[in-house]
């Protein structure tokens, strides 16, 4: 039994949850202790008790700790990457890459906690100085999804600890093994009791146990759950950071390099089995290049190898579970009923092992009002929307309640710059996939995609600290 970490002790839970390999549904990854709301509150209490001492540790001590964690993650990257692949269904390359990214995040914040500082300003009044300083918030609840089971916890845990906060992490019940492995490393590198606590369990229990007695909550997941968390958190006067859904457009103009456009669409829409909030699910293509683009993209899709994530030849692994597989099939049927044409993919894939494999799917003849173009599917499904010109493409790109990532493929500097400035999204990509970003820059979107301060990079300090303004008479 793999236990929860509360106040420095590995403890059993109120119940048990099991993690299964989506590439081979016969393989049990492990049994994990599941906390109920009461045990989650114990974790919050432990974090509260540890906060006073942790916030007053030196920045050098916190930096050294985060650097040791990064170093150990890199030392174990092969085994950790394999675990990510087994539990989340990512290809071996994706699993290894995610672990390396998570280690880089810890390394980055090992440096940031030495330099986040404050400001010294003159007052507008004589003989008075102003000192602006940053201070840790306190106890932070972190609730993370399964699609990036080590990178997303890393980009929440590392800044929380770097800036002097204590925390409780509740990972997805579908990927408890990866979170357990990460906390094993944290504990082995000298994590003080109560500073970071791990509780596996259901989202229902998290809503009951992790939104009371804390100072902030950072959540990544669905819009529906995010809205529910927001309603509770506002009543508790808790600081909020929500990263939710996306329905991201990739615009392809007539003047685009066709090979570049196809690669951007293929990578953005279908890699990681389309289970990325930044995936390109709406391909908005102008008339002059439309047919050539569709032909070239479908040819590339047919050549993609779908299968067991542990097979080195696999390019697209399984979706996470039966529920997600069924949801994808529902939207494929819905798209056809709405009048779109399924020109490629969508069928289940028979592999050497039983798993949730589906061929990447492409619709054509769709229009933006269709539900397949307005609702997040979170799978390897994309729709082509034909438009007349750039102006219609931009209007279509912005015609969504989401606003996370958007891309354009063009050789026109004027169109690229206009799109970058006028698309309503937090991320804008030019001749690049809509998915994929660096760890040292801010991440987040607009409208239903995000709420609250940005994640990642030096901008994370805005969420994990509060500012104090002090006036000093000379």
From TrEMBL:
Its EC number is 1.1.1.257. Residues 15-469 form the Aldehyde dehydrogenase domain. Pfam families: Aldedh (PF00171). Homodimer. The lineage of its organism: Bacteria, Pseudomonadati, Pseudomonadota, Betaproteobacteria, Burkholderiales. It is an enzyme of class 1 (oxidoreductase). One of its GO terms (molecular function) is oxidoreductase activity, acting on the aldehyde or oxo group of donors, NAD or NADP as acceptor. This is 4-(hydroxymethyl)benzenesulfonate dehydrogenase. PROSITE patterns: ALDEHYDE_DEHYDR_CYS, ALDEHYDE_DEHYDR_GLU. It comes from Comamonas piscis. It catalyses: 4-(hydroxymethyl)benzenesulfonate + NAD(+) = 4-formylbenzenesulfonate + NADH + H(+). PANTHER family: ALDEHYDE DEHYDROGENASE-RELATED. Keywords: Oxidoreductase. Belongs to the aldehyde dehydrogenase family. Involved in the toluene-4-sulfonate degradation pathway. Does not discriminate between the sulfonate and the carboxyl substituents and can also be involved in the p-toluenecarboxylate degradation pathway. The keyword Oxidoreductase applies. The active site is at residue 243.
């Amino acid at each position: 039994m793999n236990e929860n970490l509360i106040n420095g002790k590995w403890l059993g839970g109120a119940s048990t949850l099991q993690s299964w390999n989506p590439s081979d549904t016969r393989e049990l990854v492990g049994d994990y202790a599941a906390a109920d709301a009461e045990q989650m509150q114990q974790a919050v209490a432990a974090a509260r008790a540890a906060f006073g001492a942790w916030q007053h540790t030196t920045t050098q001590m916190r930096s050294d700790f985060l650097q040791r964690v990064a170093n150990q993650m890199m030392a174990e990257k092969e085994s950790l990457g394999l675990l990510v692949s087994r539990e989340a269904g990512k290809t071996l390359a994706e699993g290894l890459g995610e672990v390396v990214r998570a280690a880089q995040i810890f390394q980055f914040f090992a440096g940031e906690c030495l330099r986040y500082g404050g400001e010294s300003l003159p007052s507008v009044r004589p003989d008075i100085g102003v000192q602006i300083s940053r201070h840790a918030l306190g106890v932070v609840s972190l609730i993370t999804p399964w699609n990036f089971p080590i990178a997303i916890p890393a980009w929440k845990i590392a800044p929380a600890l770097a800036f002097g906060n204590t925390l409780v992490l509740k990972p997805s019940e579908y990927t408890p093994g990866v979170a357990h492995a990460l906390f094993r490393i944290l504990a082995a590198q000298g994590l003080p009791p109560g500073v970071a606590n791990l509780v596996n369990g259901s989202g229902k229990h998290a809503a009951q146990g992790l939104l009371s007695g804390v100072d902030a909550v950072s959540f990544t997941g669905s819009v529906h759950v995010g809205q529910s968390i927001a309603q509770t958190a506002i009543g508790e006067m808790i600081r909020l950071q929500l990263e939710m859904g996306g329905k991201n457009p990739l615009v392809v103009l007539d003047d685009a390099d066709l090979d570049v456009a196809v690669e951007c669409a293929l990578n953005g829409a279908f890699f990681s089995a389309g289970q990325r909030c930044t995936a390109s699910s709406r391909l908005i293509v102008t008339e002059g290049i439309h047919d050539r683009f569709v032909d070239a993209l479908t040819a590339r899709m047919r050549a993609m190898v779908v299968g067991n994530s542990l097979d080195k030849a696999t390019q697209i692994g399984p979706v996470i579970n039966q529920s997600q597989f069924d949801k994808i099939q529902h939207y494929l049927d819905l798209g056809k009923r709405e009048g779109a044409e399924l020109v490629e993919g969508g069928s289940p894939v028979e592999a050497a092992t039983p798993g949730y494999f589906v061929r990447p799917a492409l619709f054509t003849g769709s229009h933006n009002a269709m539900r397949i173009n307005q609702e997040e599917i979170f799978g390897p499904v994309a729709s082509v929307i034909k438009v007349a010109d750039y102006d219609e493409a931009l209007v279509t790109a912005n015609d969504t309640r989401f606003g996370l990532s958007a891309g354009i493929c063009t050789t026109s500097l004027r169109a690229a710059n206009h799109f970058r400035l006028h698309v309503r999204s937090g991320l804008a990509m030019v001749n690049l996939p809509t998915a994929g970003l660096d760890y040292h820059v801010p991440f987040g979107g607009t409208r239903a995609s995000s709420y609250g301060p940005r994640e990642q990079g030096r901008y994370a300090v805005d969420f994990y600290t509060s500012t104090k303004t002090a006036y000093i008479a000379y």
